[in-house]
Write a structure and sequence with these properties.
This protein is α/β, with parallel strands linked by helices. The protein is built from 14 helices and 15 strands. Strands 4-10-9-8-7-5-6 form a seven-stranded mixed sheet, with helices on both faces. Strand 5, helix 6 and strand 6 form a beta-alpha-beta unit. The radius of gyration is 21 Å and the shape is globular.
């Protein structure tokens, strides 16, 4: 095993010159089990970011390990592509469409959430005959060309990034409402802005609108349920398809259903998935209505590794674990315990400006003071390091990197949440002195 110093040398010499590790001092993770990960020295950490919102059923779940070992011991084929029949892919297709909202009965498998969104854009454009994709400011939908063209963060975009045929609506951020509204005075101006944007920044028709039920990289922004109802109505009225990006929110993380789109009753035409869907496997998916799928008839879509046996088998076992171990219900119950605990911490620590989210996808926005809501970016970076020192890993997001992101595996229990809250409390105390 290489030392951190050796890996640093190699990364500096051969990796891209972009920010590439979370903490002030790099962390090498070498082993994992359940809720915990371990560094090269054997130190244990409570994983409260879930492998960047990827681990839903826990690290190295025994049933997943058993399935993969069976496939290897039986010399099961590892790669086939969809040009050949594969039972694991067919079984997963039946299982995921059974969890989808009514009418979304077609599925295509990809390698990642980025690819899933690329396919969703392409399908919507082909089905409607239109080209414009509408997104939200502060959104993030992946690192490929069309996905980055719909990204609402300057830090993720490149100088040569093509942004043709995209348009952005204002973000539905209740804490930092772009319209200066409060929850008790809100008239869904953010939703109505979708219509205004179509009317003023397009030719009056769009191919699709894309949004996450909870905006992940944007800082775990959780719009009110009524927002989605109104936006879907507007999108359909202007001929567009509604794409619900569940790359981070899917696999039961919201605590109400396997898919948050179904939980919030979003009238979506396509749903994209990845991350927790495969419990860390390199797999994504696009669910879509039959009418969209049928519009592609006669065209070719091919993904070399999409639907391979090992990835689809792991995703199927992951879905079975989430069902059998009632992890959606646990996400709901433990999410409430965590949210209540964080709101109690908010009463004590003025650095916390807002606590928000759904289920086990919770954001803590740090501000220098609650009146100005000045972004506490440096404090957020320091808080991550303080928590790491105490054996807890959390993430961060938001345009200015001041939102702590907590998205643990759905297996987390009360004792582990108590430990997380204690660590956050102690670390916030240190920050204030």
């Amino acid at each position: 095993m290489k030392s951190n110093e050796e890996i640093t040398r190699i990364r500096l010499k051969h990796f891209l010159a972009t920010p590439n590790h979370y903490h002030k001092e790099p962390l090498q993770l070498v082993r994992a089990q359940g809720m915990y990960v371990y560094d090269e020295k054997g130190k244990r950490y409570l994983d409260c970011v879930g492998g960047i919102v990827c681990i839903s059923a826990g690290h190295n779940h025994p049933r997943i390990k058993k399935k993969l070992m069976e496939l290897l011991s039986e010399d099961q084929i590892q790669h086939t592509s969809v040009l050949y029949y594969s039972s694991p892919a067919a079984e997963l297709a039946e299982m995921i469409t059974a969890e989808a909202p009514k009418g979304l009965d077609r599925v295509a498998f990809t390698n990642s959430g980025s690819e899933a969104n690329e396919l969703a854009f392409m399908a919507a454009r082909h089905a409607t005959g239109e080209t414009i994709i509408m997104n939200l400011r502060h959104s993030y939908h992946g690192g490929t060309a069309a996905a980055l063209a719909n990204c609402g963060h300057h830090t993720w975009r490149f100088r040569a990034q093509p942004v043709a045929s995209t348009v952005s609506a204002l973000e539905p951020n209740c804490y930092r409402c772009p319209f200066g509204k409060k929850p008790d005075s809100c008239s869904l101006e953010c939703a109505k802005n979708v219509e205004t944007t179509i009317q003023t920044a397009t030719h009056g028709k769009i191919a699709a609108f894309i949004a996450e039920p909870v905006m992940g990289v944007g800082g775990f922004i959780a719009p009110p349920k009524d927002y989605f109802t109104e936006v879907a109505r507007i999108v359909h009225n202007y001929g567009g398809k509604y794409i619900s990006d569940e790359v981070q929110t899917g696999a039961g993380r919201g605590g109400g259903n396997f898919l948050m789109t179904k939980e919030l009753e979003i009238d979506a035409d396509e749903i994209t998935m990845a991350k927790g869907f495969g419990n860390g496997a390199a797999i994504g998916a696009v669910l879509m209505k039959t009418e969209i799928s049928e519009s592609l008839r006669g065209k070719m879509y091919f993904n070399t590794f999409g639907g391979d046996p090992f990835q689809t088998a792991q995703s199927k076992v992951t879905m079975e674990i989430i069902r059998d171990e009632k992890l959606v219900e646990n996400a709901r119950a433990m999410g409430k315990v965590l949210m209540d605990g964080l709101k109690d911490l908010m009463k004590k620590h003025k650095l916390i400006g807002d606590v928000r989210g759904r289920g086990l996808m919770i954001g803590i926005e740090l501000v220098k003071d609650r009146e100005s809501k000045a972004y506490a970016t440096d404090e957020a970076a320091r808080l991550m390091d303080l928590c790491r020192e105490k054996g807890v890993l959390i993430g961060k997001g938001g345009l200015f990197g001041n939102v702590m992101r907590i998205a643990p595996p759905l297996t987390i229990n009360r004792d582990e949440i108590s430990g997380l809250l204690k660590t956050l409390d102690e670390s916030l105390d240190q920050l204030s002195h």
